[in-house]
Design brief:
alpha+beta; two-stranded antiparallel sheet; about 35% helix; globular
């Protein structure tokens, strides 16, 4: 498992306790949880007009997938608990779900960046063109 920790800017009340950190692992999301996230997203997006959604741009789906990444490793937490999350923390959960739909497990804005050194930017391979003397 590759558990990660989501640090909340605004603590949420779960089982009578203020929680400011949530562990999560998108790789533990089950098929049933994925289907439930799709169903919840679809229920929110009901409208009289036809809209074509792809999972890559379905923000409600991303949000619920983020929630299920938390629930997958914290079975005592319920969707109703996570629906009380507010502010930028909602976007942090959404980022987790979005990265899952892109098949990536990169860091979200609520995580510490990795300790790996960053790649340096290469110098341009071509020089600016000079005007020839006439």
């Amino acid at each position: 498992m590759s558990k990660k920790t989501l640090k909340l800017d605004e603590p949420v009340l779960i089982d009578g306790k203020e929680v400011s950190e949530l562990t999560y692992d998108p790789m533990e999301i089950t098929a049933a949880q994925f289907s439930e996230a799709c169903a919840r997203s679809s229920a929110i997006n009901k409208s009289k007009s036809f809209s074509f959604k792809m999972r890559e741009n379905d923000y409600a789906l991303h949000l619920y997938l983020g929630m299920f990444a938390v629930i997958a490793v914290n079975p005592g937490i319920d969707v109703a608990d996570l629906e009380r999350i507010k502010g930028f923390d909602v976007l942090k959960l959404t980022d987790i779900g979005m990265l899952f739909t892109y098949r990536r497990s990169g860091a979200t804005s609520g995580e510490k960046p990795s300790e790996e050194p960053s790649e340096s930017t290469a110098e341009p391979s071509t020089r600016a063109s000079e005007k020839p003397d006439k």
